[in-house]
Automatic annotation (TrEMBL):
SUPFAM superfamilies, alphabetized: Bet v1-like (SSF55961)
Domain of life where this protein originates: Bacteria
Protein name, as recorded: ATPase
């Protein structure tokens, strides 16, 4: 597995960027870059579970491994979902079970720096290199409105 890192500077407070990242309406907008109509079901609390879903109920089942309000969110991906149901781990998913995805906000020269990391397999590197940059650009746009 390889860890990819993406960064962007945003002219907004960490609190504003945080709300764009995790509030439902804006979350749906920026994650639409990955799949139109994407959404999440979660209480967004550390130790809680997250269902990252497409409109047809496919996606990832994850746990919020670490959360520091307005600073850091870390997800550990546990399994796939299909038809809104968590699937058992099989040989196809075994290679990425435990993959991490993180979002870190830091203040720098009156700006907020958003750094996102994602663990991925070779198969998805090109996809994430394209989509994460677009997603971060949209987060910047929504945060600076």
């Amino acid at each position: 597995m390889k860890t990819l890192t993406f960064k962007i500077e945003i002219q907004a407070s960490r609190e504003k960027v945080w709300s764009v990242l995790w509030e439902e309406a804006s979350y749906r907008k920026w994650t639409g870059v990955f799949c139109e109509g994407s959404y999440a079901i979660s209480d967004w609390e550390e130790g809680g579970f997250v269902q990252f879903l497409t409109p047809n109920g496919e996606g990832m089942y994850s746990i919020i491994e670490k959360k520091t309000e307005n600073e850091y969110m870390a997800f550990r991906h546990l399994n796939m979902m299909k038809n809104h149901e968590v699937l058992p781990v099989d040989t196809a998913t075994q290679e990425w079970v435990g993959a991490m995805e993180t979002y870190r906000l830091t203040a720098s020269n009156g700006m907020t720096v958003l750094e996102a990391t994602v663990d991925t397999t070779e198969k998805y590197i090109e996809h994430f290199n394209t989509t994460f940059s677009k997603a971060l650009a949209l987060i910047k746009e929504l945060s600076e409105e």
